[in-house]
Design a protein that fits this description.
Tetracycline Repressor, domain 2, mainly alpha, single chain, Arc Repressor Mutant, subunit A, 221 residues
Amino acid sequence: MPKVSERYIEKKKEEIRDAAFRVFQRKPLYEMTMLDVITEAGLSRGGIYKYYDNVDQVIVAMVNQVTTQNELVQKIDQILAKTRCSKNAIEELLVFLGKYIQAHVNTVGKIQFELTVMVANHPEKSASIVENLTEQVAGQYLLQCLFQQILQGIETGEFEPIVPLEEIVAYVGTYIDGLLHKVVLIRCYQAGTGEVDEEKSMKLLGRTVLYMLGVEEKKAK
């Protein structure tokens, strides 16, 4: 048998990932089956298993393809490289996150929401899915950079917290999760009420965090 080239294998994998994304646009991730992907990709039942062992692997590959294109980590590094103090870095990172959520709510936002539902109902999938997602790593990297800036500001005397650091960390995580949850429900599922401006919401979070860090806002004259 002729040897199959790496380029051919990657092309087939990309076709499968693209097919999985089209399925995702019609039905939730937690309802996606291997048969759905096989039918959408136009492959035989045996053909798809040459490239992916199960639907979980397909989902991980599809999600990583979508999120890698956004170059989240590189953009975070660019923000940090141009900011001169921890205060500005915190503000810039949170505004960037607000814009990112706004721009990608129908893809990355919806994916994260549905993966949360999937893992909540099937915790055994956490190791095979969540831990292999590049978006998960990138999201953790952003929060890590944010908290590093907080610690750096405290060490240099830029910040003098009036709230315990662990409470600030918990507040930030809860706020972001809640915002993402609400935005996805409204934009992707037409559930819930009201409208959300992600950029303004994250600016408000930044002001609140800085207040808790002891930074007083300058009053307009």
